[in-house]
Structure formats: structure tokens, C-alpha cells
Specification:
This protein has 519 residues and is α/β, with parallel strands linked by helices. It has helices at 7-10, 153-157, 170-173, 178-181, 189-204, 222-232, 257-270, 279-283, 287-294, 315-320, 348-354, 357-362, 370-394, 425-428, 445-464, 500-510; strands at 34-37, 40-43, 45-47, 50-57, 80-82, 114-120, 129-135, 161-165, 210-220, 242-246, 329-334, 400-405, 483-487, 492-496. The chain starts with 6 loop residues before the first helix and ends in a 9-residue tail after the last helix.
């Protein structure tokens, strides 16, 4: 049985995401910080040594006749544009039962291609700073750039210019239908949005004191998968110099256009829509009906497919061929990625695999029940083993650093078996008090110190390509040494060949270049 048999299980990657309210454009006082970008003047806010410019359009509204087309440049504006409030999130369904976050973006619109920038108040073009561009997660169905735990001020205090971006989600971001095929256009509109945002950064980030030659892209869950996709996309060549992938998988089998069309037909049928309608009719479907169609099959998930225009090959195949971007990479996963199973239980095939004698033997020292085996298997097969595999392939091209994140907030250690999917995010951004993890409870000195140290590590990587920080000497990964930074409650250290026996088995049986079958 190979990884393909677990496609449904592996695509359920719902991240911790969401947003703040948005406000309309309005003119503000020139006393506030301002910046001139392509398109016009922006007026933002300044607090505690950090300037923030929010809700900046990086592309035209992809609605009406622009729905399901490649992003176009945003229209210029007259006067000063208010950039003190986040822009709307892209349309998305309600959170499923058991979702990992309670944050919901209240303002949603198809006119959602906007981004946020945080920059030190003293940043200048004369001494440009490294740039960190963040791509949110959410199974390509949920989330937005303005979730409170993505707030970039504390990373800006560490000498970075931080950018968080929106991109189209669900059917609006990934769509295939016969009428659109006749236009010979792409179908992975979310990927094109991400590339457009990076192109905007190249043209404009110097105005915020950022260095366009020192851009690091980063993302978690679906955002991490997007980073891997960008590393293999020729259209993204030269738009970034480094990459960070958090719980982004790496073994996903890319559906064909035909497979995506069939899934969309099924969703449309369940919502009483006709996927075979002409393009004009499709573009007039109310967005609420599209969201309803997305929700018909929660297991569908979204992500890139082989549209033959923007994506022509599996990401893993590009890595195997050594054709991905030769950029420094920081990559890893969490110890309890199976927290995702609270929102989407394992299917029958996955349960059968977990109950097999071979898998039970593999986890005999780590799991004492069928459910525990299933959770370990999910964590390793969907996230941990693919992260190590990608690290090994990328280490042949550039400096690569691998981690496993297992720190759990002090007050929750009795109720969590490890760090859940997305649980590292408020540590990376040093925003524990703004997250579900930190709200309504006391954070210990160890909690806040760990968040500070982790944010220092990520910031150091963005600055220099090396995560040099208080966590300790972090050696680069390669196949021979197998060095992994293991971030835990009781100790944090670099470990050689961490859990190699189990992860080696995942490689042998399930990786894109698997050599064996399960007995």
C-alpha cells in the first residue's frame, strides 16, 4: 500500500488561521507614517518603534469578469490611502467542528488580494533589511493574512520587514471546468496570486526599508505546501532567496485537471449548480453558492492540480530531479500533527493500515493502543517523514535545517500529547498572548522564553540563512549526519538521525521514490 491510498487522509491539512475586522479606505492625517508605492501613497500607523501598513492591494479585485483569471495589477488611487486596518479575507466556509482555531475573519470579499507590512520605524532604503513574506495555511479553504498570531511587530523588532499575504481560496483559488479550459488559461489561481504578491514585494519593499534581494518566503500547512510549490515554479524564479516550510508535507500527489474537474462537478451537483455551464454563467454564480458547493465534501480539500499552465509536474518529482530553487531552507513539523484528526477522522483505508501487523511493530515502543498508532502514523506519514525527505533532497542544493517542534505550553501539558498542527505559529511570531493557545490563561516564564528563542531562531535564518540563536548550535541537515533540532519541554538539542528507524520505514514504503511494499 502506497501513499496514494491515503490521499484523503493526507489532504486534510487544516491550519490555525483567521482574522481581524476590516475597514473601508479613507483619508488619514499626514502625521501618521506614510510611504509611496506603485499605485499611490499609503498612510499607516506607528507603535513602539514599528510602522504597520495594512490591507494594501497587490492585485486587482478578482471578481466579475476577473474571476478565474490570472491576477492583474491593482488600480492606482488618488490621495492617501488608509492602511491602518486589515483588508477583507478571501471568501471561505465556516469552521468545521473540531477546527484548531476559533478565530474567524468577519470581513470577507472576493476583493481580497491584499497584504500587510510591518517594518522597523528606522528602516530605510540606505540600509535595507531582510524581508520575511508569510503565506497562511488553512487547507487552501480557510484563513487569511491578518490572523492576530501572524502580527509581525515582534519580528520587525528583530530587524526584519514582515509581509503577510492573502490569496484566493477554495473554488476561487483552484478551479477546473470545460468552459474555462476553452480559454486555455491556468487553474491554480492561488499560486498565481502568491507569485503576484512576491512580484509586488520586489517592486515596492525598498520603500519600506526592505531588501528585495533578501526575501525569505515562509508558510505553514497549506502555506508550507505553497512554499514548496513556489520552489518548483519557474514563474517564481528570482522572487525569493530563502524558504521556510512548517508542516507543509511534501509527498502530496498532484491531481490531474480531469480529476479536479470531476471533484468540482461532484461539489457543484451537491449544491444544485452546473459545472458544465458556459464561462459567463460560471462567473455570475454568487460566491455564497460556491462556498456551499465547497462544503459538500469536506474531504475534498484544495491545492494545486496539473493545469498544464502554472503546474505541470508533481512537486516531489521536481525535487527528485534536483530542479527546485537552490535556496537555503528551514523545514520541519510538530509532534502531534494528528490533532487534525479532530476535525477529520481517519478513513477506512488509513485505519486498516494502522491496524496492520507491520505498522504495529513499527510503533511498539511509542504507542500502546490502536488509536495511538493511528495518530503517530498520521503525524509521521503526512508531515514528519515528508519534511525529512524534502530536507534530504534540498540539502543537495543548498544549506538546509530540519526541526521537530514538541514544546507544549506549561498549563496544557496534561491535556496534549504533543504540539498540535499549527501550534508552533505563536512561537515563531512571538505572539503567544494573541493565540488560542495563550488567551484566557497564564503563560509561564518558560512559555514566553521559548517563544522569544524560537522567534529569534527564525529571524536569524531570515537574516543570514542560518538559524543561529539561543536554542543552541543548529547544524545543517544532510543524509550522513541527519541533524534535527528537537524542540521540547524538558530539553532542546540537535539530535542525529532522530527516530530514524520509523522515518526510514516511511521512506521505504511511502515516499515518492519508495523501494518496498508493506509485507
Amino acid at each position: 500500500m502506497r501513499l496514494l491510498a491515503l490521499t484523503t487522509l493526507a489532504t486534510v491539512v487544516l491550519a490555525t488561521l483567521t482574522a481581524c475586522d476590516a475597514a473601508p479606505v479613507r483619508t488619514t492625517s499626514t502625521v501618521a507614517p506614510s510611504v509611496q508605492v506603485v499605485g499611490g501613497k499609503l498612510v499607516g500607523t506607528s507603535h513602539d518603534g514599528v510602522r504597520a501598513f495594512l490591507g494594501i492591494p497587490f492585485a486587482a479585485a478578482p471578481m466579475g469578469e476577473r474571476r478565474w483569471r490570472a491576477p492583474a495589477p491593482a488600480a492606482a488611487w488618488l490621495g492617501a490611502r488608509d492602511a491602518t486596518q486589515p483588508g477583507p479575507a478571501c471568501p471561505q466556509p465556516a469552521r468545521p467542528a473540531g477546527a484548531l482555531s476559533t478565530h474567524v475573519p468577519l470581513a470577507q470579499s472576493e476583493d481580497c488580494l491584499n497584504l500587510n507590512v510591518w517594518t522597523p520605524a528606522d528602516a530605510s532604503a540606505a540600509h535595507p533589511l531582510p524581508v520575511f513574506v508569510w503565506i497562511h495555511g488553512g487547507a487552501n479553504m480557510l484563513g487569511d493574512a491578518s490572523a492576530p498570531y501572524y502580527e509581525g511587530a515582534r519580528l520587525a523588532h528583530r530587524g526584519l520587514v514582515v509581509v503577510s499575504i492573502n490569496y484566493r481560496l477554495g473554488y476561487l483559488g483552484y478551479f477546473a471546468a470545460p468552459a474555462l479550459e476553452a480559454e486555455h488559461g491556468p487553474g491554480n489561481f492561488a499560486l498565481l496570486d502568491q507569485i503576484a504578491a512576491l512580484a509586488w514585494v520586489q517592486k515596492n519593499i525598498a520603500a519600506f526599508g526592505g531588501d528585495p534581494k533578501r526575501v525569505t518566503i515562509g508558510g505553514e500547512s497549506a502555506g508550507g505546501e505553497a512554499v514548496l510549490q513556489l520552489m518548483t515554479a519557474s514563474a517564481a524564479h528570482g522572487l525569493f532567496a530563502q524558504a521556510i516550510v512548517e508542516s507543509g508535507g511534501g509527498w502530496r500527489k498532484t491531481p490531474t485537471r480531469e480529476e479536479m474537474t470531476a471533484k468540482i462537478r461532484a461539489g457543484f451537483s451537491g449544491a444544485g449548480l452546473a459545472a458544465d455551464a458556459d464561462a459567463q454563467t460560471l462567473r455570475k454564480i454568487p460566491v455564497e453558492k460556491l462556498i456551499q458547493a465547497e462544503s459538500v465534501d469536506r474531504q475534498l480539500g484544495f491545492g494545486s492540480f496539473l493545469d498544464g499552465v502554472s503546474v505541470s509536474e508533481d512537486t516531489s518529482k521536481v525535487f527528485l530531479a534536483g530542479k527546485q530553487a537552490p535556496v537555503p531552507l528551514l523545514i520541519g513539523s510538530n509532534t502531534w500533527e494528528a490533532s487534525l484528526m479532530r476535525a477529520q477522522p481517519a478513513n477506512t483505508k488509513a485505519r486498516q493500515l494502522a491496524d496492520s501487523a507491520a505498522v504495529k511493530r513499527l510503533y511498539k515502543d511509542e504507542a500502546d493502543s490502536s488509536d495511538a498508532v493511528m495518530q503517530h502514523l498520521f503525524t509521521d506519514l503526512v508531515m514528519a517523514a515528508p519534511a525529512r525527505w524534502v530536507a534530504r533532497e534540498q540539502s543537495k542544493r543548498a544549506a538546509t535545517f530540519l526541526y521537530r517542534f514538541g514544546y507544549v505550553r506549561t498549563a496544557r501539558r496534561d491535556s496534549m500529547p504533543g504540539t498540535p498542527h499549527g501550534g508552533e505559529l505563536p512561537y515563531v511570531f512571538d505572539t503567544l498572548e494573541k493565540s488560542d493557545v495563550g488567551q484566557g490563561s497564564t503563560l509561564s516564564t518558560q512559555d514566553t522564553a521559548t517563544a522569544s528563542a524560537v522567534a529569534d531562531c527564525w529571524a536569524a535564518f531570515v537574516r543570514s540563512g542560518k538559524p543561529e540563536c539561543a536554542l543552541g548550535a543548529w547544524a545543517a541537515y544532510d543524509a550522513a549526519g541527519g541533524m534535527t533540532m528537537d524542540i521540547g519541554n524538558e530539553h532542546t538539542a540537535v539530535v542525529s538521525h532522530l527516530r530514524a528507524g520509523i522515518l526510514d520505514a516511511m521512506d521505504r514504503f511511502f515516499s515518492p521514490n519508495a523501494t518496498s511494499r508493506l509485507p
